[in-house]
Design a protein that fits this description.
This protein is of the alpha+beta class. It is about 25% helix and about 30% strand. The chain has helices at about 35-45, 95-105, 120-125, 185-200, 220-225, 255-270, and strands at about 5-15, 25-30, 50, 60, 70, 80, 85-90, 130, 130-135, 140-145, 150-155, 160, 165, 170-175, 205-210, 230-235, 235-240, 245-250, 280-284.
């Protein structure tokens, strides 16, 4: 484990830390490894900060960010079996948790396989796929509020909805999961990954899905119905494979992606009267 409680980097590039490979520099970039160091930093920054997880579902402007960027480090990356429940640090990558689950025949996570994210971010946004939410597996969540106070919140006291939760006002520190035994997890994961590879676009960097699915229709279907697949703005393109993906063909900028997002919203509203809601988070 990194012996430093906190590490500060100035003018640190965020481009390589987002899955779409777009973003400027963080004036102050903090890697934090202890709860105490995080508490002191949160109090010092007074809500003028962003929390960076796996960098998926995130669109960062190309300019320098004056707000601090905090990334939870190795001190928050852990998986521990606690009698009935599994305790997982917020910085733990989903693929690490799924690997552990496979080794121990623990089910429930197969539908999320292939998402390049950390546990804290997945839980805060209530990640879902194939009609199952991660919230269905949660027992308790430990969080830090904007005053640096740490507390545990029971599952029943958290408001979860589609791609949203009441945890967005906190920093998630760790999560306790109740994962059922499942001896067929490998087969389920393979089926999930096969479906993702057949339907989603992994050929170029992307944020994943740009929009939430409205009632009755998928956002991808609506955008595709407007004949927008393949539409380009410089090096940003609405994917030919999955219309709810915008891919970076090489040197796409924030404004390029923003232009395509606006065009998709405009055309879908014009044709269907539906206002698409963005799933992607923006930093500026």
């Amino acid at each position: 484990m990194n012996s430093k409680a906190i590490e500060l980097k100035h003018n640190h590039s965020l481009k390589s830390l987002t899955t779409i490979k777009i973003g400027g520099e963080a004036r102050n970039f903090f890697i934090v490894n202890t709860v105490d160091a995080l508490r002191k930093l949160v109090i010092k920054l007074k809500d003028s900060y962003y929390i960076l997880g796996g960098g998926s579902n995130l669109l960062v402007k190309d300019n320098r960010l004056d707000n601090g960027v905090i990334k939870l480090g190795e001190g928050f990356d852990c998986i521990l079996q606690k009698v009935k429940y599994l305790e997982v640090g917020a910085a733990t990558k989903l693929n690490s948790l799924i690997k552990y689950a496979l080794q121990n025949n623990l089910g429930g996570l197969d539908n999320l396989a292939g998402i390049p994210a950390s546990i804290g971010g997945l839980v805060a946004m209530n990640a879902s796929a194939f009609n199952r939410d991660i919230s269905q597996l949660i027992k308790n969540v430990e969080v830090m509020d904007k005053n640096g106070e740490v507390k545990q919140i029971k599952r029943e006291d958290i408001i979860f909805s589609y791609r949203r939760s009441s945890l967005s006002n906190y920093i998630v520190l760790k999560v306790w999961f109740d994962l059922p035994k499942d001896n067929n997890l490998k087969i389920k994961i393979n089926n999930c990954m096969k479906h993702r590879l057949n339907t989603q676009d992994f050929s170029y960097p992307s944020c994943g899905c740009i929009f939430k699915n409205p009632e009755k229709f998928s956002a991808g279907f609506l955008i595709d119905s407007c004949n927008l697949k393949g539409l380009r703005q410089n090096d940003a393109q609405i994917s030919l494979r999955h219309a709810n993906f915008i891919i970076n063909l090489g040197k796409a900028s924030y404004s390029d992606v923003d232009c395509l997002i606006d065009r998709a919203k405009e055309e879908v509203h014009k044709k269907f009267g539906i206002i698409l809601e963005e799933e992607v988070k923006r930093w500026s």
